[in-house]
Design goal:
The chain is an alpha/beta fold and about 210 residues long. It has one domain (about 10-195): P-loop containing nucleotide triphosphate hydrolases (Rossmann fold). Helix content is about 40%, strand content about 20%. The chain is built from seven helices and nine strands; from the N terminus they run βαβββαββαβαβααβα. The chain has helices at about 20-30, 60-70, 85-95, 105-115, 130-140, 145-160, 175-190, and strands at about 10-15, 35, 40, 55, 70-80, 80-85, 100-105, 120-125, 165-170. The strands form two sheets. A five-stranded parallel sheet has the order 2-7-1-8-9, sandwiched between helices. A four-stranded mixed sheet has the order 4-3-6-5. Strand 5 and strand 6 form a beta hairpin. Helix 1 packs across helix 7 and helix 5 packs antiparallel against helix 6. The longest helix is centred in the C-terminal third of the chain and has 15 residues, at about 175-190.
Length: about 210
């Protein structure tokens, strides 16, 4: 049987409003090996969001109970709400031969990188400018003025975490950003570090 590459985790981070889902959703729709890692959160559900699809929406008490049991590989408070990724959810996806795609805050990303090390392919998505980021956030019309200011302030320190990520993408022109993510996946699936053995074995050099 031919050797095949092991599954890795695709980590995507960037400031709120940068357009992460707009970039990775088309790639996921055409790539059956990609599976979305559904995070847990205590934040209220937005219109159109489905529990178990967009997030696992938990009460604060339930989130804290699971965190006390060590269920989360990463968990942080972001914009006054709790977010986390359960280790068991990731392991189930990897065991099923899927590449988990994680859309998490940079603080959570740091924990994922520490836990899975070389099994993580990390991508940081930048806005073309902070001014454009504000335009995009206001266009979403999902936060009040106070919450919007918090997200803009957080964006300025979040970009400092980009130095921990392998790939940097700027979401200036959406079509180009999508193609760049496709290219990253194509390259990583051929990267030697993800292959436990060569796809073909030659004659033994042993005497």
């Amino acid at each position: 049987m031919k050797a095949s590459p092991t599954q890795f985790l695709l980590l995507i981070s960037g400031p709120s409003g940068v357009g992460k889902s707009s970039v990775y959703t088309p790639v996921m729709q055409e790539d059956p090996q990609l599976g979305f890692s559904v995070s847990c959160t205590t934040r209220p559900r937005r219109p159109g969001e489905i529990d178990g699809t967009h997030y696992h929406f938990l009460s604060r008490n339930e989130f804290e109970r699971q965190r006390a049991q060590g269920a989360f590989v990463e968990s942080f408070t972001v914009h006054d709400e709790l977010y986390g990724t359960r280790r068991a959810d990731l392991e189930r996806m990897l065991d099923a031969g899927l590449t988990p795609l994680l859309d998490v805050d940079v603080q959570g990303g740091e924990k994922i990188l520490a836990a899975y090390k070389d099994r993580v392919v990390s991508v940081f998505l930048f806005p073309p400018s902070f001014e454009e980021l504000e335009v995009r956030l206001r266009g979403r019309d999902t936060e009040d003025e106070k919450a919007l200011k918090v997200r803009l302030e957080n964006a300025r320190w979040e970009v400092d975490y980009a130095r921990h990520y392998e790939y940097w993408l700027v979401n200036d022109e959406l079509k180009s950003a999508i193609e760049d993510l496709r290219a990253i996946l194509r390259a990583e699936r051929r990267r030697r570090r993800h292959w436990p053995n060569p796809p073909l074995s030659g004659p033994s050099s042993a005497a």
